[in-house]
Amino acid sequence: MLNRKLRNAFTLETVLLILTQPWEEQSCDCCSAPGNCCLNPSTLTQKLHLGGSERGRGNEQPWGKPCTQLLVSVATPGCDGFPSLDSKESYKLSISEDSLLLSADAVWGALRGLETFSQLVGRDEDGTYYVNETEIVDFPRFRHRGLLLDTSRHYLPLKAILQTLDVMAYNKFNVFHWHIVDDPSFPYESVTFPELSRKGAFNAITHVYTASDVKAVIEYARLRGIRVIAEFDTPGHTLSWGPGAPGLLTPCYSGKNLSGTYGPINPILNSTYEFVTRFFQEVSAVFPDFFLHLGGDEVDFTCWKSNPKIRAFMQEMGFGDDFTKLESFYIQRLLDIISSFGKGYVVWQEVFDNGVKVRPDTIVHVWKENATPYMQEMAQVTKAGYRALLSAPWYLNHISYGQDWMEAYQVEPLKFEGSPEQKDRVIGGEACMWGEYVDVTNLTPRLWPRAGAVAERLWSNATVRNLQDAYVRLASFRCELLRRGIQAQPLFTGYCDHEFSGF
Amino acid sequence: MGLGGLLVGLFLVSAVLVGTSVRHGVPRAEPEPEPELELAEWDPASGAFPEDSLWPLPQSLRTSPRQLQLAPDRFQIVHGAGSSAGPACALLQDAFRRYYEYMFGYARWLQRGRKGLAAKPELAQLQVVISSPEPGCNGYPQLASSEAYRLTITEPVAVLKADEVWGALRGLETFSQLVHEDDYGSFLVNASEIYDFPRFAHRGILLDTSRHYLPLKSILTNLDAMAFNKFNVLHWHVVDDQSFPYQSIYFPELSNKGAYSYNHIYTPTDVHLVIEYARLRGIRVIPEFDTPGHTQSWGQGQKDLLTPCYSGKQPSGSFGPVNPILNTTYDFMTKFFKEISSVFPDDYIHLGGDEVSFACWKSNPEVKEFMKKQGFGIDYAKLESYYIQKILDIVSSYNKGYVVWQEVFDNKAQLKPDTVIEVWMGNNYVQELSSVTGAGFTAILAAPWYLDYISYGQDWKKYYSVEPLDFPGSEKQKKLVIGGEACLWGEFVDATNLTPRLWPRASAVGERLWSSRNVTDLNDAYKRLSNHRCRMLSRGIAAEPVFVGYCAHEARGR
């Protein structure tokens, strides 16, 4: 039933408590208490999927006294805030005959506790809901538990993103890494530069995210304790920026002539930095999270090399033939711009690998599986004093036959040579669903429940690694996802009481 | 709006006139003066033609740049003069309505119906003419059914000619693929001439409803998709070790005890529905009841059917394949397959026969005793053959043909000469095709098309590049390969991921089995397949993307 092993849980075998009252009727006693925060009961109903059993409401209950309230007690308010890297997600859940109590320091912990509580509620053959006497103390092992969606290679309708946020909450993920634009398309509708999506989206009307779409995503995520980290990857992966921002990309040459194609962002023009400044000023204001993801991966130097003006600039700057120095030159200016807006940043590992001077609080995102073994990269990044995020073993867009969730599950993010301080710098990881072969037709079954394996690795204790046990829990959690209307694919042969029926 | 809009306005008058003449009299197909048709051999590389969206590619296609316009509120699909089918042919009536909706959508054209037509000549009708005196409206498609058709698209009417309704269904699909909507919402079709027929007669999809139950709706949706890809056989692997969802009339305990739950069954009504839904789309339903292995789920509802396994001298409590040494086994099978033979109208039943594990038989003293008595020595393949031969005799007595997996042939069971052997083992299928056809048997190829084996990237190219007749053998042998099947086994597949996992990957197999052998250009196929996938989306099939890009009408997130 529980998707993840709780750190400190005991469960009594006797079923003592039943929930028979419609949840709408309950009052939230903690609301009036000073310093406490009230959660909307209608949200509760939704989360718990309490269908209400006619039979269960009868008078002759063989059970104990029905319980009608889950008391939610939050020590520090913050209902209107955004979750952050430092948010507290710990909670205590105390379920006894006398009371059902969920207590947490912050609303974010309360959200996690509600999810756990909903996973504890069972239903017997008569349709009666019940929950076992339980004591739970729970908190995440890693603070950053992310999921990357790519809306550039294929456009994902708003609805698909929102539904993914729902399932992320069921899995206690807390970061939506929105890889929003890339070479193939630019669906982000910019207020400052509307031409970017007008000319760079697959379709300027139907395949874009308007300002209100973006707001909806951010708010929907916030209500679920999920941060939205937007990625605007530069200077590579920017072909779709070109049509809407003339002069931004480097013109490539074939011999002495312009070839008509374009390469990465042109790092030698002042106009580039003026554009970048204004663009990221908007992005910094639109996305409330402290962090932006600035990309910086896979910069192809061929076009830069072909361009005579760039070569002249290289000479002038004394970079010689080392184009990583030119990349660093660009990135450093970009980072300064972002810093000036009071934002922190995450970058892909190449930025670190290429020796770009970055602020000490930069987060380095490790994604390459083999170039350097990723654990070695984790050691190097943390040894240099940077915080690290792990994604390399969790590229869920790479599919294969069989139960590949097991591989994802067996990863141990801290299994590298390094001091305890270094280990502390690993703030978490992200499951990535790149979009080359993924759109709304196959996103959900490809993502779930496979990403659930990553979620447990990032939340639960390092010692929770038994595959048989995980299989049983994950298979039944997958059935619960179906019951909640999520098109999660099967782990292996078998069935669920509530099969997927939403065609 | 620039010059284009102006032109539309200028020619509005003549367009209306065309419309009027159509409304007042149904134009005839025959005596109309031949319009100037500049038919050109189609050049797949040009990319300029809307035929870029045809899938699978017809055998012969000539098309002209000349475009005809269809007015949704006037355009009709009708029975042509001289057709042996008429409005009483419910199968065609149903297909006419279906294809009308695929082409024009449901509600959208109503608003647009009053709009004037552009400067293009109008195509008023598609006339469907069935030439055989037995059109087949109430029959079932068969291995020998004719699926050939001829499609002539000129103004004012297009004519679709076919021997039987099955060819008309294929032609309607092709016609609907030729009709496209331009940026102004007009429906256009290029004047064209198509003659088309399948390369292979058996073009199947295998669905496995035992490892995971598939809701009826999911099966029906995939029958739709099969029709869009001109597949004509649903190989329904209905039961297996894991569960027995088929509700038997004679033996209801089989599903009562062998299904995953009471909700996870196919009632007789469900089965009839699948068969009828398939028939209306020209698709045969071949059920597979695999024995003697793969039968664990049968055991719970049918006492003594399975072989009790022994551990030493004691029964171990577990069971093996069907017990081949008991008369009761054959009594049961006689009755069971009598039911199956009458429930499923197709001439063929798939009898399985794959992957029989001998370990349990070997452990059982009574089986060992029987082996001795029969003089089989320790060759358990002989025992398997003994069983299979008896089953084949039973099924033959009901006048059914049968398909079996390749092991039955490999183990040298005595087979009737008209047995169909399905080749599935991936390691050496080329050689196997050679042996099977060399022995004079008919073959179906499935080995390179196990679509449940997924991998990263565009694996459709692998399926597309298979050439089924690329094996050593005579012309006569090649003729014995009647087709192939794309198999989606159910270990990791249920209703949540079936459709995107199957489509458009199975489409690659669809074209390989339908189109001419020389249709192998991957770049051309990529372009057409991407368009075809978008069309499937617009028809409600959640087919996954081939690669980066988009469709004008994306699938909607739920």
TrEMBL record, chain A:
| CDD domains associated with the record | GH20_HexA_HexB-like
- As recorded in UniProt, coiled-coil segments are none
The UniProt entry's GO CC annotations, sorted and at most eight, read:
lysosome; membrane
What GO terms in the biological process aspect are recorded for it? carbohydrate metabolic process; ganglioside catabolic process; glycosaminoglycan metabolic process
- InterPro entries tied to this protein: Beta_hexosaminidase_sua/sub, GH, Glyco_hydro_20_cat, Hex-like_dom2, HEX_eukaryotic_N
Asked if the keyword Glycoprotein belongs to this entry, the reply reads yes
The Beta-hexosaminidase eukaryotic type N-terminal domain is annotated at 82-120
Which residues, if any, are the signal sequence? 1-25
Q: Which UniProt keywords apply?
A: Disulfide bond, Glycoprotein, Glycosidase, Hydrolase, Lipid metabolism, Lysosome, Signal, Zymogen
Q: Which domain of life is it from?
A: Eukaryota
UniProt family annotation = Belongs to the glycosyl hydrolase 20 family.
Q: What quaternary structure, including any partners, is listed in this protein's UniProt entry?
A: There are 3 beta-hexosaminidase isozymes: isozyme A (hexosaminidase A) is a heterodimer composed of one subunit alpha and one subunit beta (chain A and B); isozyme B (hexosaminidase B) is a homodimer of two beta subunits (two chains A and B); isozyme S (hexosaminidase S) is a homodimer of two alpha subunits. The composition of the dimer (isozyme A versus isozyme S) has a significant effect on the substrate specificity of the alpha subunit active site.
Record-given protein name:
Beta-hexosaminidase
Automatic annotation (TrEMBL), chain B:
Any one GO molecular function term: beta-N-acetylhexosaminidase activity
Q: List the keywords (alphabetical).
A: Cytoplasmic vesicle, Disulfide bond, Glycoprotein, Glycosidase, Hydrolase, Lipid metabolism, Lysosome, Signal
All copies of the Beta-hexosaminidase eukaryotic type N-terminal domain together span 54-178
Q: Which GO terms describe its biological process?
A: carbohydrate metabolic process; ganglioside catabolic process; glycosaminoglycan metabolic process
Q: Name one Pfam family in it.
A: Glycohydro_20b2
What is the reaction catalyzed? a ganglioside GM2 (d18:1(4E)) + H2O = a ganglioside GM3 (d18:1(4E)) + N-acetyl-beta-D-galactosamine; a ganglioside GM2 + H2O = a ganglioside GM3 + N-acetyl-beta-D-galactosamine; N-acetyl-beta-D-galactosaminyl-(1->4)-beta-D-3-sulfogalactosyl-(1->4)-beta-D-glucosyl-(1<->1')-ceramide + H2O = a beta-D-3-sulfogalactosyl-(1->4)-beta-D-glucosyl-(1<->1')-ceramide + N-acetyl-beta-D-galactosamine; Hydrolysis of terminal non-reducing N-acetyl-D-hexosamine residues in N-acetyl-beta-D-hexosaminides
GO CC term (a single one):
lysosome
Which cysteines are cross-linked by disulfides?
89-137, 309-360, 534-551
Q: Where does the record locate the signal sequence feature?
A: 1-15
Q: Where in the cell is it found?
A: Cytoplasmic vesicle, Secretory vesicle, Cortical granule; Lysosome
Assigned EC number: 3.2.1.52
In the record, the note on similarity to other proteins reads:
Belongs to the glycosyl hydrolase 20 family.
**Assembly and interactions?**
There are 3 forms of beta-hexosaminidase: hexosaminidase A is a heterodimer composed of one subunit alpha and one subunit beta (chain A and B); hexosaminidase B is a homodimer of two beta subunits (two chains A and B); hexosaminidase S is a homodimer of two alpha subunits. The composition of the dimer (isozyme A versus isozyme S) has a significant effect on the substrate specificity of the alpha subunit active site.
Could you identify this protein by its name? Beta-hexosaminidase
